[in-house]
Amino acid sequence: MKKFTNKEISWLSFNDRVLQEAANPDVPLMERLKFLGIFSSNLDEFFRVRVATLNRLAKLGKPAKKLIGHDPKAVLKEIQKIAVNRHETLNTVYQQILKDLARENIHIIDEKALSRGQVEFVRSYFSEKVRPQLMPVMIDQANKFPELQDRSIYLAVYLSVNLQPDKKKYALIEIPTDVRPRFVILPCFRNRNCIILLDDIIRFGLAEIFSVFHFDHIAAYTIKLTRDAELDIEDDLSESYIKKISSSLKKREGGIPVRFIYDAQIPEDLLRFIKDKLHLGPADHLVPGGKYHNFKDFMGFPDMGLDHLKYQPIAFLPHRDIDPKRSIFWAMRKRDILLHYPYQTFRYVLDLLRDASIDPRVRSIKITLYRVARNSSVVSALINAVRNGKKVIVNMELQARFDEEANIYWANKLQEEGARVSFGVPGLKVHSKLCLITREEKNGPMRYGIIGTGNFNEDTARIYSDHHLLTTDKRLTREIDKVFDFFANNYNVPKFKHFVVSPFDTRKVLMKHIRREIKSQQEGKNAYIILKLNNLADAAIIQKLYEASEAGVPILLFIRSMFSLIPGIEGLSSNIRAFGIVDKYLEHSRIFVFCNGGEEKMYITSADVMPRNLDRRVEVTCPIYDPDLQQEIRTFLKLQLDDNVRTRILDKDLTNAFVPSDAEKKSRAQWSIYEYLKRLSATPRSKGDSPSEDAPKPAHGPEGKGNDAGQTQTQKPVPAD
Predict the structure, then answer these.
(1) Cβ-contact 410, 396 below 8 angstroms
(2) Count of CB atoms within 10 A of residue 610's CB?
(3) Domain limits at 582?
(4) Is 510 a domain residue?
(5) Which of 98, 246, 283, 564 is 20 to 30 A (C-alpha) from 2?
(6) Measured between alpha carbons, how far is 306 from 319 in angstroms, rounded to an integer?
(7) Where are the alpha helices (H) located in 338-439, listed in sequence order?
(8) Which helix (H) or strand (E) covers residue 201, if one does?
């Protein structure tokens, strides 16, 4: 009996759910284009990372199978089969979207469908803005075949003479999407809104590009190469960590090919020539596709001003415990605060950091940074704090995949300003989301902490469903300080009383909780387990969940992507229900709930249940002690469970079937959560003891800089970190 689904195959099933949204006529049309782009971007990253790792393992032979529990070569074959099938589906979905766009009078046309006026526009646009960016290479006569860049797309050009089949030449042109938009809006013709892709503008100008030759047939076919993006960090103690990462990033540019996508209409001789030059064989994931690649660019499709084709923007909800006329320090002294993104604003965290940066009583700020926004206000606040004489300690994770260069830049910037920057723990990636502000007050130092499921990133906080706990609970703030002490002194592993920290305790604590639920069930007591995760792929934890299911413990799982457990198998997992939601926002928060004999244990965490999170990363799982916040999380999970619009059933066959929907009682979790928090924000708390007026006034009033309450935003889901 099969007991585990391979995690890579389960991830591909998750990406199928993304593609379902692109195909779903109930999703606004422009959002469907974005989902198409997300599907493509996700798949690119999958090959760059997951397939690249499997390729490396496959070279190890039998030891790899023993190491990971399955044959990587067999998995790679299955991935290839799925990849070819999904590219066919992608093109089918795209063709349907084109038809639906045409019904809305938006026409994506190629160079063969231009009107006379559009021809003149494209000719001018090509000559003035595109041709200067093109550097064609005659690959049939080049001494060395060009190094194809990862994430770039190319036109493989075939030049021939109709009556002389042996007279032909091959060329290669990189499509310059880094300096020119992929989509160009054309002049209207007969009231038709028309858009052309940059690819087709170049096809339009092929005769001009190759006018030096005398060929009567010129055609171009899109190709794309995906490379291994894993970093190889040399173990050289004489070299700084930043230099090691920088050196590895340069090597990534020339990584081993892991996938080659090509237009299925490309002539066989040209395809064979390119494959030979790239040394590609049958095992290198050769994928025939359509005319266009890099559908990720559709995430930036032009806004045609048709609001009914997009999700309507939402207004950020105010938090009822945060007074815009007072500092957030004041609110935090009164009670713990749980922020729900993206429904509530990340501005609250920015305001706290800004206030801390100028407050004369604040002595220090400590923070972990994994991924930050492109123009990070978080880093700006930290730099301002240094300039104002605060002690700023930053743990910057340089191995946050695909954010390495940005993190090196910010690390250097912070160090230049005088912040103390560390780079985690040797052999461990720091993935925890922590901040600790220490402030001198009447009764001595007071600590203000932030513990999160997601990054300190104002960009992703608009599109990821995440949580941040703001707290002055000494039980928790002391634990935050212990984590930062560990970063400073790796040899001294602290003992945690309230936090559950990887790689020290998370695995054994999860096991202990599951065993306790099994014991309670056997003793006739209430028992249950609820896990909300991005990924569940640890074999030992899954086996223990199977034991709990066999003992009769009800288990409810909300899993976004990788999912190796197989629910619903009689005698193994019949008491396990598993669901996945793909909707407007990316489900990213991680929550553990255990019945615990009636004294419920509830946690938020940065950790997924995978070997890497349990054994090779610094992750923090934090208990929720406040009864009101526990109720907020219970309601959050209940609304997720009630969803019958965007929830899929996760089953052994990876069918991604939608939860059966009652036409009269439709419930959509992300909409319902917004309405719940809206009602909560309008419900005043009963008056209690106010915190000491020792807490400062805010640095800015309700209309001041950084206050975005009431602003609206356009949301789109993006890949996970």
Answers:
(1) yes
(2) 20
(3) 502-673
(4) yes
(5) 283
(6) 32
(7) 347-358, 377-387, 404-417
(8) helix 198-204
Q: Provide the β-strand partners of residue 720.
A: none
Task: Please report how many Cα atoms fall inside a 13 Å half-sphere around the Cα of residue 376, on the Cβ side.
Answer: 23
Model pLDDT, residue 718: 39
Strands 555-559 and 529-533: parallel
Indicate the residue type of 206: L
Q: How many domains would you assign to the chain?
A: 2
Beta strands in 442-496 (DSSP E): 444-452, 464-471
Rounded CA separation 287/264 (Å) = 9
Ranges of residues in the chain whose predicted pLDDT is under 50:
233-239, 245, 249, 252, 688-720
pLDDT of residue 693: 41
Supply the pLDDT for residue 697: 38
pLDDT, position 695: 41
CB atoms within 10 A of CB 552: 13
Last residue of one domain, picked from the residues 68, 86, 104: 104
- Cis before 165 (ω within 30): no
Query: CA angle, corner 243, sides to 239 and 246, nearest 5?
Result: 150
Contact 36, 22 (CB under 8 A): yes
Cβ–Cβ < 8 Å for 614, 536: no
The 3-state DSSP class for residue 494 equals coil
Task: Give the model's pLDDT for residue 242.
Answer: 54
HSE, side-chain direction, 13 A CA sphere, residue 492: 8
Q: Where are the alpha helices (DSSP H) in 218-343?
A: 241-252, 268-278, 328-334
Tell me if 578 is assigned to some domain. yes
Beta-strand relationship, 444-452 and 434-441: antiparallel
pLDDT in tens, 431-456: 999 999 999 999 999 999 999 999 99
Q: Tell me the catalytic residues.
A: 431
| Residue 499, C-beta contacts closer than 8 angstroms, at least 6 positions apart | 476, 479, 480, 482, 483, 620, 621, 622, 623
What is the model's pLDDT at position 189? 86
For 386, residues 6+ apart whose C-beta sits below 8 A from its C-beta are 392, 414, 417, 418, 419
Residue 396 is encoded by which pair of tokens?
A: 């910057």
Q: What is the CATH number of the domain that holds 22?
A: 1.20.58.310
List of residues 6+ apart from 207 with CB closer than 8 A: 218
Residue 412 structure tokens: 């250097």
Q: What is the pTM of this model?
A: 0.90
Which positions ≥6 away from 134 have C-beta within 8 Å? 173, 174, 176, 202, 209
SS3 string, 111-135, reads CCCCCHHHHHHHHHHHHHHHHHHCC
